[in-house]
Each structure stands twice: as C-alpha cells, then as structure tokens.
C-alpha cells in the first residue's frame, strides 16, 4: 500500500498483479495491471510525482547505483512524499540527497548504473543512521534522521540543517563529554503542523 503525495488517494496491490487507486470514501478510482495481464507477486508500491514504481519478485530492474562507499555496508533510505528526492544514509552518519524525479524514466537498453543527480551530502551524525523519515511541513519538505550515536537530526530537504538533538560531544583535549542540543531557526512562512 502507498499514499499519493497529496495523501488523498490510496494505492493497493494484489497477488494478481492488479494495482487499485482508492479515494477515502471506499470508491475504486482506477485499476491497472502491473503484470500486463498475468499474475505477479507485488511486494511494494511507490508513488512518485508522475509515475508509480511497482516492485515484486518478477519485476524488471531498470537502474541501480552505489549511493555510499561499498565498504560501509548496508544503508537506509527513504523517498519524499512528492517522489522527487531519495535520501540515503550510511553507518558513518552521512546523509545524501538525490534528485530521482526523472531517474530511469528515459528508455535505456539494460540497467542504468549512473547515479541520479546528487544534490547534497552532509554528516549530521557520528555513527550509523538507523532510521529516516520524511514529511511535509507547510510548503517545505523535512527529513528526520536517527542514529546509533543517540542523536536525532532535523533538516529541510535537500539538506539544510535545522537542529540536532541528543548527541554527546567528546572534547578530545580534555576527554570530557558535553550533551549537545543545537537548534538553528530560520524565518519562513510555513504553516504549523
């Protein structure tokens, strides 16, 4: 299941390969078959701004790229509600924001291995990022990241830091620990949530 960017339509998928678009009155607005008329197991539906990405066991891979150094192991990732941004994070605390709005939409022979455009790379954490979440606040997109270093960072997309909460700062000269709570406020006309 997935919600569209406006969160007014629900997309569901079945084992028969059929995708249904619903309104919140229980009315099916549209039906399409991702299996082109045959049954396929759909594991995930991702709603992008102008397209729907359907993944399953029999899906066709159209693109893959290395988002972070391979030696860093697994990464976590999240896609913005509007489908424009992919944010990836690694075990060193680095977040990267990619523009995926048009990624793999052009016809291509084989698998695209070129990465989408990297918009921003920044390191708000000292250790592995364990969770990413994105949401809309007024007219701005936010990314919330949590880390094994016991911190939570809040940033505007594509990567403007708002605040970092809970991280312990270690002074290497005196070996003292200081609890860091920093918030950087910007003035804008965003509506409260």
From TrEMBL:
Top-level taxon in the UniProt lineage: Eukaryota
Database matches in Gene3D superfamilies: YVTN repeat-like/Quinoprotein amine dehydrogenase
SUPFAM superfamilies named in the record: WD40 repeat-like
Pfam hit, one: WD40
Keyword line: Repeat, WD repeat
Xref: InterPro entries: WD-EF-hand_domain, WD40/YVTN_repeat-like_dom_sf, WD40_repeat_CS, WD40_repeat_dom_sf, WD40_rpt
Sequence ranges of the WD repeats: 1-25, 65-101
Matches recorded under PANTHER family: WD REPEAT-CONTAINING PROTEIN 49, WD40 REPEAT DOMAIN 95
Name of the protein described by the UniProt record: WD repeat-containing protein 49
